[in-house]
Amino acid sequence: MIYFDAAATTLQKPGSVTRAMRRAADTLGSPGRGGHAAAMAAAEEAYACREAASELFHVCSPEQVVFCMNATHGLNLAIKSILTPGMRTVISGYEHNAVLRPLREGKAKLAIAASPLFRPEAALDAFHRELTADTGLCVVNHVSNVFGFIQPVSEIAELCRKRRIPLIVDASQSAGILPLDFEALGADFVAMPGHKSLYGPQGTGLLLCARPGKPLLEGGSGSDSRNSGMPSMLPDRLEAGTHNMPGIAGLRQGIRFVQSLGTEKILRHECMLRQRLCTLLEDNPAVRLYASDREDAQTGVLSFSLAETDCETAAAALSEAGIALRAGLHCAPLAHDTAGTDGTLRASFSVFNTPRELKKLVSELENFR
């Protein structure tokens, strides 16, 4: 199978990830639940993973790195730590349902800073207008999961700091690809999955925290056990229950893999594939590409549509040919509404994809002329 769905999850992982998971399953206990060798080894592994993440994302203290099940878990923690019913909350026009649904469930008063695709200046202008004095929260993704549109998060964060508006950043599509400096950003929370461009296993994620936050779960934390409430300090406050130690061990190796290559090299490789695919498809009149000619406006994610075939039908045919792409709304209907689309095919790449694989996709798409 040719796998072009890394924006959903990176299927190909470094060998070090799966080896670490096997070792963890055989040797690690539960951190904070005993002084014996297996528990202590687990505590050391968990802390080493926090250290690796804090180094990659410039977090002041490893204790500010909280383990989650995925980015959705982290976003729910972050949003529910700040949001109150009726709070005016500004979001971009490209947010995922992992942001929209908890905001709507929490009865946020939504204001959408909508802007055209691949126009960072227009996006910043929209946030400048919408971040008014009565705004209580801003939530924005760094990169659109549908289009790979890189939003001006640093500039939006600066606006939020000046106006004293709490900021949550969804880094699901940027962590491991783009530089992300948590201290410089000044966000209250940054959420990310472990299983996408950090090359860790599914069932892992990270929440970078500048404040303690409110727990979603209460229970054992391995610390402050006589306290009838959750501990006040991070990360224990937000990590009730037993840790996913095989996942954490695998995630640590995924982060080390990203560090060894560097985010700049990873981004350059993925953008090369996206640009090459655009070139190969530009002579096919049935294909409409959603692409930017600006290097600072798009990652290695390419959405496209076909003139006479709906995206779901095309994706099924491509799957029969051994090519995996994502099709539909990509759990982000707002992004499609903003861009004026009704579903797309999406090719998203990882460091394990090659230019040779693109030729098979281009060849199969000739069938849709």
Keywords:
single chain, 369 residues, alpha/beta, seven-stranded mixed beta sheet, four-stranded antiparallel beta sheet, 15% strand
Question: What would you note in describing this structure?
Answer:
Strands 2-8-7-6-5-3-4 form a 7-stranded mixed β-sheet, sandwiched between helices. Strand 6 (167-170), helix 7 (182-185) and strand 7 form a beta-alpha-beta unit. The chain is globular, with a radius of gyration of 21 Å. The protein has helices spanning 15-27, 37-57, 71-82, 97-105, 120-130, 153-163, 182-185, 245-261, 263-281, 311-320, 333-339, 355-365, and strands spanning 2-3, 65-68, 88-92, 109-113, 135-141, 167-170, 189-193, 205-209, 287-290, 301-306, 323-324, 326-328, 344-348. The longest helix is centred in the N-terminal third of the chain and has 21 residues, at 37-57. Helices cover 39% and strands 15% of the residues. It has 12 helices and 13 strands.
- What's the Cα radius of gyration? 21 Å
Count of helices? 12
User: How confident is the prediction overall: mean pLDDT?
Assistant: 97
Measure the end-to-end span: 23 Å
The biggest beta sheet reads: 7 strands, mixed
Roughly what percent helix?
25-40%
The ordered string of helix (H) and strand (E) elements is: EHHEHEHEHEHEHEEHHEEHEEHEH
Structural class: alpha/beta
Q: Name the overall outline.
A: globular
